[in-house]
Amino acid sequence: MYSAQGQFEAAKVWHKTTLVLGSAAAVLSAIAGSTVLASDNFRLAAGALALGAAFIGAEMTTVNPAQKETQATEAAKAYQVVQASARQAREIDLERSTFADARTGLTHLTNLRRR
After folding, report:
1. DSSP 43-109
2. How many CB atoms lie within 10 A of CB 14?
3. Where are the domains of the chain?
């Protein structure tokens, strides 16, 4: 449970990172564009804002928080599958299994974990 929950929490962090960086880039771009249109006196400020927005966009491309969010969510789901399978094996299947069947079930659980 703790591994799955940790991955779900990581996915939340990556989701918030995507929102913050994306919003910041959009706001900086909007301010830079409106500054350029408003007056020629603020060209340097508009250029700096546009560079800031481009930097944030480059960071989003490099870090790719949306992909990391997806990976963390998929890892959490995989942990839950292994957890549910292990619980079923322990509480239902193990009591009625022979040693060989129990060993086969353990091998199956190990292979699930490695995916």
Report:
1. HHHHHHHHHHHHHHHHHHHHH-HHHHHHHHHHHHHHHHHHHHHHHHIIIIIHHH--HHHHHHHHHHH
2. 20
3. 2-114
Q: Which of 58, 51, 10 is nearest to 31 (CA)?
A: 51
Phi, psi of 77 (to 5 degrees): -65, -40
Q: Spell out the residues 6+ positions from residue 101 whose beta carbon is closer than 8 angstroms to its own.
A: 93
Burial of 7 per CB tally in 10 Å (0-12, 13-18, 19+): buried
Q: What is the pLDDT of residues 71-106, one digit of tens each?
A: 999 999 988 988 888 888 888 888 888 888 888 888
Residue 51 token pair: 């560079």
Task: Tell me the pTM.
Answer: 0.75
